Structures are given as C-alpha cells and as structure tokens.
Amino acid sequence: MLFGLDNSTSEAQAKGIALAKKLNAAIDDTSSFCQGQLIERALLKKFRTCYLEDVRNNADVLVYWGSDAQDSQPRPLSRFSVFPRGESRQRGYEEDRLAIAIDVRESNTAKICKGHFYRIPLRGDREFILALMEALSGKVPKYDPKRILELAGFLKKAQFGVIFAGIGLTYSIKDDIDVLVSLAQMLPNFHVMPMVGQYNMRGFNEALFKETGFVNSVKFDGKPVHDNKYSIVEALKAKSIDALLVVGSDPLSSLPRSVISHLASIPVICIDPCVTLTSKIAQVTIPAASSGFECGGRAVRMDGKVIEIPKVVENQYLSDEDILDRILDVV
Amino acid sequence: MPTVMELYQLLPKTNCKKCGESTCMAFAVALLSRKKKVPECTPILDESFKKQKEKLESLLIPTAGAEETGMIVHPELCTGCGNCVVACPVDVANDPHGAGTGCAPTNDKVIFKVIDGKVVAFNIKECRRFGKNKVLCYACIDPCPTGAIEFV
Ligand code: SF4
Ligand code: SF4
C-alpha cells in the first residue's frame, strides 16, 4: 500500500498514483479517516461550495461547526472569513458579519463567536441538524426550541452563508453524512466548506477522483477498485497488506494503537522531510525536501483552488516528486 | 488588572482633596487610568500607611508598561493570529489593500503588526481611544481569543 501524499505537491501526488497503478497496489491517504466523505460530496456537487475569496468578499453568516479553525489552521479568521473587509463587506466584522460556532466545547473559535456559540452534546450533531431542519421548515423543534429557532432565523436571513464543516462534525455524523447534505439543500444561500487537515489533502482526493472516481481507499487491479477494506485503518486491522510506502505522513503517531502493530511485521518505507515515529521504525527512510520551502510545485487549497507554492531555499534534497519518479523508473 | 474598588480600599478614604481630586474614589479612578501617581496622595506617604502604599504600588505594576492610550499587549498570550491587525479600523483606513483585506500590513502607518509571531503596537496615537474625538473602540479586543490586548 502507498499511504500519505497529503503533504506533497500535486505533481508528487500524480507520481504516487501512477506508482500505485503500475504496481497494482492499494493507495490511501488520511482522508479515509478524516474529511474524505465530505470532499467526495463536494466533488460530486452534492452541495454548493465556494472559494475562500468569495467568503471574504461576500459572506455575512459564517458557521464554524465542529471546527476550531482559530487554533487549528493558519489565520483562517483574519485572512478569509470573519475579520477582513471584502468587496461587499466593507463595514467591519461588528456590522457586516455574523460568526456562529457549534461545538461540544467552548473552543477559541467559539470564544470569538461570543453570544452565538451553540454547545451541543458529544455526538449530538445529527439530532441538532434534524432539529434545525424542523425549525427551518417552520415547525417548532423538540430539542432546545428557543435557541434552534433563533439560529434558524439567522441562517434564513443570510445573503451569503458558509458552513465550515470541521472534523468534529464529520466524525459525529460519519454514518449519515447526507444529513448535512439535506440541511445544505434547505439553505439555498449557504455553501459548505470541508475543513481539511493537511495542506494538500484535497489535491490528493481530487487527483485520485479524476483517475478512479473515488477519493481514497483504492486498490488497482487492472482497474481501480474502491472498498473500505483498502483504507489504511482497515488494511492494517485485517493485516491485509504486506508492505507500506508512506509519503509525508506519520501513521504510527496518528492511528489507534490497536491497528498499528501490523507495521512491525511488514517492511515500511518512509519518504519524509522530518524524522517521525514512522520514519524511525521504517526499514528504509528517504529524506525529502519539504514542499513550499525546499521544493516548489502546486497544491489544492481546501476550497479547491490551485495554488502555486514556490521553492524558497536552495538545498540538496530531492523532492517527493523526484524520489517517486526515480522509484517509478526502477519498478 | 486591579479594579477601582481594590485601589479605593487601600486609600486613606478621608476625601482630603490634597491630591487635587474631589474624592478618594476619584483619585482611585485617576490612578487606574494613570493620570495620577501614588505619591500625589501625600497622606499615604505617612509611615502608618506603609503597607497599604506598597500593596497599591504592586497592584499598579501591570499598568506601568501601558502605552499612552492605556493599551497593553501581553506577548506571552499572543498567538500571532492577526485578527486584531485586520480588524482595527485604523489599520483598515491606513492600509486598505494590505491589512484591510486580511493580508499582512504593507506600510508603517498601521497600529498592529505581527513580528516574530507576536503582535507589536505602533502609531498608538492613531488609536480611536485617543485624542479629541475618542470612542470606546473594542475592535481589537473582541477578536482576540486569548485576551492578549488590554486597555487600562
Ligand atoms: S481600540 Fe480600536 S482603534 Fe484602538 S487599536 Fe484597538 S481596534 Fe484599533
Ligand atoms: S488577536 Fe490577540 S492573539 Fe491574535 S494577533 Fe492580536 S493580540 Fe495576538
């Protein structure tokens, strides 16, 4: 299995996919236990989505749902959402924007949203969505009616709304992601933005989707086959893979302990600019240039916009792209 | 940050007016806004008030580093998120295409800049809390999730 590539340039991702194809290997990335389901729906146009520039220029209602963007992403609120002025939002955040947080705890994002923080119980998102849908259709919901009706009022009045769907929301409704799609359908002025973790995760999902029709958990077998059993978690749990090539990811740190033991019994190859737990146990480690710094290329931002990332410093390391290219040559 | 009441409780509370204020409460307010200094209350310099004077001075330490507008930036709390930089209306007016649109400041006319990951205040006299037409502006305080900006 080839795993990772979310911290690699789009060029390296293309090589990785080509390599998996050539070897008839399985390929997966962290989106299989992260935002893959949401990104897949965005690519299938199940809900409206938009660029971050549109958010800055037009958005008047911003809903951070299961996402502590203030602490987990670089400058999302100051650069693109709540605080900057935009073309049709010239008067500043106090007058022009309404920031709302829905979360299980009062995160720093929720603190910024002050009076518009809706605290929900753990895994309460689905019930909250259903109650909100009732309120939007004019009924009085059973669940916290006063606040839900208030929230529905804000959402209905929005001219350009955005739901920033965080991993907290996705995990909570992972067995029924389409409930969010249904909510988005009831809000014609709203856009859904999946909050991704790694800088080019969406790029990987888009590239694999274009090649195979699926965003992750694919095994090439002459033709691409998609199955949950080809996700890293299930593959390690079932001990169904006999070698792992990891590019720019650290499964040993990020996966549950119960599934990682299989890594000890198979050869692991690691391509990474950093020393990680995974690189330490890997039989072969190839140090790579870190992209956006030691090597350049393109990446797909979380909103789907392609960004050029420059090489900033000269160095002797090969990029992920070059390394994968050389591996492709020899296999 | 001390409260006016905390400061007031430590004063002689005789309303003697020797400090130039009409009451000890008014003097406490003036202390907090740094318009008056502790020794301007001459009775408190007396030996018998030694402990109270020391306590008062220690309470006022945090306000000592404040800018003229009363602004204090706590670098240990600042995460460099830039919310205050782009939210400050003065920054927007003085740098509409930089800080005003969410980008890094492009000139030296702004009040806030993030330098080495921490916010630093410049041009403090431009702050709307200062000068003749001052207003009680909260545009940099409210967006800060860590409470790194304070006015005293
Ligand atoms: S109080 Fe207002 S004008 Fe003064 S620095 Fe803060 S945001 Fe700017
Ligand atoms: S908003 Fe607060 S944390 Fe963010 S840069 Fe300003 S002072 Fe620092």
Explain what the structure shows.
With 331 residues, chain A is α/β, with parallel strands linked by helices. Chain A folds into two domains: 2-34 and 199-330, Rossmann fold (3-Layer(aba) Sandwich); 37-194, Dimethylsulfoxide Reductase, domain 2 (3-Layer(aba) Sandwich), CATH 3.40.228.10. Chain A has 17 helices and 14 strands. Chain A has helices at residues 10-23, 36-43, 52-58, 69-72, 76-79, 93-96, 108-112, 125-136, 145-157, 167-172, 178-185, 201-212, 232-237, 251-254, 257-260, 277-281, 320-330, and strands at residues 2-4, 26-28, 61-65, 98-103, 117-119, 161-165, 190-194, 218-221, 223-226, 244-247, 268-272, 284-287, 297-300, 306-309. In chain A, strands 9-8-2-1-10-11-12 form a seven-stranded mixed beta sheet. Chain A has a five-stranded parallel beta sheet with strand order 5-4-3-6-7. Chain A has a two-stranded antiparallel ribbon with strand order 13-14. In chain A, helix 1 links the parallel strand 1 (2-4) and strand 2 (26-28). In chain A, helix 2 (36-43) crosses helix 12 and helix 8 crosses helix 9. Chain A is globular and about 65 Å long. Chain B is α+β, with helices and mostly antiparallel strands and 152 residues long. Chain B folds into two domains: 4-63, 3-methyladenine DNA Glycosylase II, Chain A, domain 3, CATH 1.10.15.40; 71-151, Alpha-Beta Plaits. Chain B contains five helices and four strands; from the N terminus they run αααβααβββ. Chain B has helices spanning 4-10, 24-32, 50-64, 83-87, 89-94, and strands at residues 71-73, 112-115, 118-121, 149-151. In chain B, the strands form two sheets. A two-stranded antiparallel ribbon of chain B has the order 1-4. Chain B has a two-stranded antiparallel sheet with strand order 2-3. In chain B, helix 1 (4-10) crosses helix 2 (24-32). The longest helix of chain B has 15 residues, at 50-64. Chain B is elongated and about 60 Å long. The termini of chain B are close together. The mean pLDDT of chain B is 89. The site of one iron/sulfur cluster has 10 residues of chain B, from helix 5.
